[in-house]
Amino acid sequence: MNIYEIHKSNPDIFNQLSLKDQLFCYYECPQKEKILQLYSNHNQLTFTISGKRIIKHGDKKWILNDCQGFLLKRGAFHQELPDDFTDWKVLVLYLKDNYLKKIFDEFRTYLKLNNLPKVNVEMIQQFMLNDQIRICYESLLPYFENPQLLPDTIFEGKFKELIFNILVHPDNKHILAYINQITGDYVTPIWEVMEANYIYNLKISEFAEISNRSTSTFRRDFEKHYGTTPGKWLKMKRIEKARMLLISSEKSIGDIIFNCGFENVSHFSRIFKDTFNVSPSEYRNQNK
Question: What gap in Å lies between CA 15 and CA 10, rounded to an integer?
Fold first, then answer.
């Protein structure tokens, strides 16, 4: 599920404001399922107001609470209810590259861009909060109830102040490095998108969105890099991941299917048997 589209198309559930085509949401999470697979084709900044959620990407997990802010790059992830979950109130800012570039260029002379760390390829990045940053994002919250009270110029000023305070915080240089990269001529490599997200059940068009390409450009760049089609590559990567989990873990077949991007049991079993000439259960028993 595209979390941006879910938020944008349900303003009655997700209180929202817009600023020059950027979407800002403040809501109490309605999630009922234990775990959801989501993806976003936008960079997003997330500030927990109260409660918490667990975000998982690959084998790593992060607890979203009010102690840190989080940057979620374009990509897929699992959102999970913690065992002791309570209502989760959160502010989410969806930011497009062009608008980020405009703000970054405005602040460039005030930012320390020398000796920045190497950009981390991890999709999820937490960043530090201080009193200035908290005051900035908390000052936005009342306007979700009365958006007509806030002219765009004032709202944009508040938002820019928030971004500026995040970027100048000395412990947030990794965020500054990432914004510096994407606001230049940087194009996310195909391999970076695919290696991080192949375990999620996404359509080719959704992989293209995450990579910030049209579907046709994505297919062309993919085949140039990998020498095969996305469908064939995904099948190979997912079946190999599933094979390794069968012999190296105690995960159930259902969990393996969910964690390797297959559509359902029959889809997985058919592909596995076509590849290894035995069922997944038989393969596990033979190779324990």
Answer: 8
CB atoms within 10 A of CB 173: 18
Torsion of CA 247, 82, 48, 46, to 10 degrees: 20
Residue 98, Cβ density class (10 Å: 0-12 exposed, 13-18 middle, ≥19 buried): exposed
Distances (CA, A) of 231 to 197, 200, 219, 223: 14, 13, 10, 11
Structure tokens at 24: 């800002």
Domain end call among 140, 157, 182: 182
Per-residue pLDDT of 146-198, as tens digits, reads 766 667 788 889 999 999 999 999 999 999 999 998 887 778 899 999 999 99
Q: Which domain holds residue 115?
A: 3-182
Radius of gyration for the alpha carbons in the chain, expressed in angstroms and rounded: 21
Q: Last residue of some domain: 182, 216, 241?
A: 182
Residues 13 and 151 placed together within one structural domain of the fold: yes
Task: Name residues whose C-beta falls within 8 Å of residue 190's C-beta, 6 or more positions apart in sequence.
Answer: 211, 218, 221, 222, 225, 226
